[in-house]
Amino acid sequence: MGIYKMAVSAITTCLVVLGMTGFSLSVAADSEKQPVTTQAAPSLSSPATEHVVTFIRDRNYACTQCHKDSKDALLGAHASAIHSQTNRNIGCVDCHSTIGENHRDGAEQVTKFAPSQTVAGTVKPAADPLWIKKQNETCTNCHDNPDELRQANWTHDVHALDLSCASCHNVHPSTDPMKGITKSSKIKMCVDCHSDQRKAKGDKK
To answer: What is the pLDDT of residues 11-29, one digit of tens each?
Structure first.
């Protein structure tokens, strides 16, 4: 009888062990089928969190690396003026526009200012009216009050399309040549210019 009880106990123990082993294997198999849901900690160097700094070249600074002559320095009223449209100091590109890929081969995209007139004189040839218009439009982008221009001098109306502003004014002046000019000096400028133009026409006859 004792042997019988021991046999039953041994069989029961084996069945329990086998059952537990089967359950463990089943759990392990199920765990392998489940997708991994653990989320990795975000990387500080990932594109989503990395701050990208875009370098913007100062175009005005780029100009001054080549244009270093004293005549290229921005002086006078323009040096301290605040641009009415950008609310910052006036820079090279505000008046001269921007540079192109072939800037060293003529700088066609740059607005250049020079004494120019549509009627030829004995020294100055007749300039392209479109070039004069481009120069003067750059000036009137800021000096945009026609009444003030007329009040300063009636010639602003008469010469707006035939004479560049730079014929009388200077873009980079230490002092504007037209500031404080006397009446007799104004008349002399008019006479000198128109006399020269009449002389050029007479020479062609």
So the answer is: 666 555 555 555 444 544 4
